[in-house]
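Reply to dn_fold:

You asked what the input looked like. This is it:
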Amino acid sequence: MSPERQQSRRIPQEGEREKELGHRDVLQAFNRVGYELGWEIKRLLLEEDGVFDNRKGSGYTQVTYHLLHGRWDANTLFDSAVYERLLDQREADGLRKEARDYVEVDKLKQAAAMLGRPESKMVADLIVQKFEPYEPTPEDVVLRTPNEAGVSSYDMPRVGSCTSAELYYLEFVNSPGTYQWRNGDSGMMNVITDASGEPILLEKEGLGDPYSCITLREVVWERFLLPPVTLMAVKYPKEATSQERINLAHEKPYSTEIALDSCVFVPLRITTLAIAPDQRKRAFGQHIDFQKRNGFPDFDTMPLDELVERANEMLLPELEPLQWPNEAVGVAKEEGPEGDLW
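and this is what came back:
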């Protein structure tokens, strides 16, 4: 193993000076229960030199992307010694199951329970849910996956998840009335509502990559319970949109309401707005510095409730909520330009 790889595997101990804020507490918690994390997630959580990228964001930002996209499993998420132990258990059991099936989820939950910082617990919970899916309750909002809708992943819009996504939502809150966008963007916001008419997501259109939206509350997607202000890719039929309830005194003339039941989603990453304003710098490190350098409005002060309030202002509440027949799904909205995936 190279010296660089060995260094990335090492966890700084208490009292040592850290170059970046980092999330050492997550690494130590999983160490204590016998599930040391792998070298890639370690270097990202420790925010090592060279990890930050102007497009991908901080190490923490990238961790949320990789966990939600399924690129990490037991063989890459955990240290090689842990994975070898799982393989030994699999062999002793007659190769009846996959190595990931021998992960002791109770121990992963113990690690998550040790963590006090919201951003640390958020990552730990995603790791747990990789191996034990979250079970939705009747009160949960469940988003449809491509598999459930019979949509191929290749037919989903290719939406980028770069560091600038938050800009448009911050400007949306800070621009009442006929809002204007920097750099000549002439786009707008659309609101995705459930059967009761409650705003569940905001979609930006004509602002950076199309077919990109954020959640306004906790939602369930596949195996994950996702926090508010998670960035998602969305696909829906144009027939599921309406302007009837749009408050045109506040919005662009082409803003629409979209029926949640018509939509199909894929998560992209957790945004910086998912963490309380006074904790965002600690959680996202250089991603927050990037927002400051580029003049993102209220990047370190805007709370979630202002975003939800602004979404509600888009709608005329006295009218009946938009409905969509569940059987009418899978009709593609006209495709726009594709963004780059990582």
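The CA atoms of residues 41 and 63 lie 7 Å apart.
Hope that clears it up.
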